[in-house]
Amino acid sequence: MRSPTLTPQPARELQALSLRVKGCCSPVAAPIPGAQANRIADLHRAIGDPTRVQMLHILKWSEQPVCVCDFTAAFALGQPTVSHHLAKLRDAGLVVSWKRGIWAFYELAPDLPSAARAAIDAIP
What we know:
Layout: H1 34-46, H2 50-61, E1 66-67, H3 68-74, H4 79-91, E2 95-100, E3 103-108, H5 114-121
Antiparallel strand pairs: 1-3, 2-3
């Protein structure tokens, strides 16, 4: 008997029932806007992988853009897997890239939002 395959579900926006700021015991903060909560969750999903944290560490301390070939050499991963991780970071707005010849080069995005900057600052 085959076990069912789990497929990732799209992120759901948390809907507040009301703007009530007092629970049954103590006041609570009002919910943040849904779009902002989704951006923060996307950021955390992007850095929620040890390989991507290592990539951000490398980029944080690099004095020049890093070639995808350098990431491939740094990890025991193939180029397609490295590119997949870098694409997740790029889609989250954490890194920017450009091609030079056949190679892609990466660096931290220059205009990181404050939440992303704080997350990267937490990486040694």
